[in-house]
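Deliverable D5.2: sample structural annotation.
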Amino acid sequence: MHTRESVEPAAVPMTNLNIRNSARRNAKYLDHEELFQRLLTLERKRSDRTGEPFLLVLIQCEHLIRRGAERSIADIGIALASAIRVTDVTGWYRNRSVIGLILTSFNGAGRTEVHSAISGKIQKILGVTLHASEVRDVEVSYHFYPQDGESGRAGTNDRPFPNVEDPAGDFSQKCSATVKRAIDIAGSFFALLLLSPVFLVIAGLIKLTSAGPVFFRQQRLGRSGVAFTFLKFRSMIVTNDSAIHREFSQSLIRGTIASPMGIYKIQKDPRVTPLGRILRATSLDELPQFINVLTGTMSLVGPRPPIPYEYECYRPWHRRRIFDAKPGITGKWQIHGRSRTTFDDMVRMDIQYIRERSIWGDILILLRTPLAVIGGHGAY
């Protein structure tokens, strides 16, 4: 059996795991992937709200399917359902191929103890229900949430947590997502076409006034923490030290420094060029992000994508702003003060947008964005 862990292992001796009454209750969950995903989403939101961790165990059985051992997979699920507590949940994480188990509470135990206890139980179940040759074809992975063991950093697969976003949803939600993407493609294409003369002028001025490339490229975290290359017009000198911004932004997110009016950007940043100050004040440095929108890594409207070192400081509830939506060029934050708001206020606006988002709401934000840009409030 192969084991892969997304975070530092952890767990404790579990009690009352042999509750037989849970077998019938949970066995039916094995036939409903959507129900399990919904329960997983609710558990993540509960953890975000309370700060209490939970453990997701994934038992991947794709190799058993190729060997024609589908019945053995069902046996694993039923045996697992009979061995867990009433408060825990088992079901299809991926229909007929990956079994999921959610341990909803640790009862005060540490993560290492919990990991040891549940991994021993799963190995015993696999040993009883499968032949020795089949056990080697099963891969088990353990995912603790939130990932405080890694100080909030994204996992090795560039995802802070396995695919726990809400299920695809009903027909109207799918239509809304399709329409939003169509608006993104059309809007970014026409913006790039209409603004191409502006691109050329800005590119020429950057080359004339400072040494270095026209574009500034930076790794940011998109939806579900997937890293992508974020584009802007370069507004700083090439030999700038990112430690200045790292220290400032991390301190601000942690609340260890007080910034006038909650400003989220460094005022009078010595790394910014004279032209760069104009580009930032007018938000013209953001124009290359239409390329990100056209390629699908960003949307016209959504939360701003964080830098990985900013994400390291996020509290569990902060992470919802990147788990649940594709990042955008503009959003509620940009039209309500931009850098003048505190970080927590910005996150609350993002979460409110995610909760209430609609095509009409996106259109209103897009229409109000030019007024915010012209006003220049909070831009540095």
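Annotation notes: Confidence is low (pLDDT under 50) at residues 1-30, 148-160. Residues 338 and 378 are 5 Å apart (CA to CA).
The annotation will be released with the project's public dataset once the embargo ends.
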